[in-house]
Design goal:
Elements: H1 3-16, H2 22-31, H3 40-50, H4 56-68
Helix pairs in contact: 2-3, 2-4, 3-4
Length: about 80
């Protein structure tokens, strides 16, 4: 993942008063590991394959956080 993305995300998380969690880190790494479009369900399947403890809700909350941080764009 690009260092600029990591820095922007870290600063945003701190401003929001949130913590860096292992699950969030794993989801973010999966999001930025490929340069292609994906659905939330595809991302969930991808991260669920490596960590059965990640819930669908955590994926959706993390995606919302990335959109709010202006690191991702949501397309309907």
């Amino acid at each position: 993942m690009d260092a600029g993305i990591r820095d922007r995300l870290d600063a945003f998380i701190q401003r929001k008063g949130l913590r860096r969690t292992g699950q969030r880190e794993e989801i973010v790494a999966a999001v930025f590991s490929k340069d292609e479009h994906f659905t939330a369900e595809e991302l969930f399947d991808r991260v669920r394959g490596s960590n059965r403890g990640i819930s669908r809700a955590t994926v959706y909350r993390t995606l919302a956080l990335l959109v709010e941080a202006d690191l991702l764009r949501e397309i309907d």
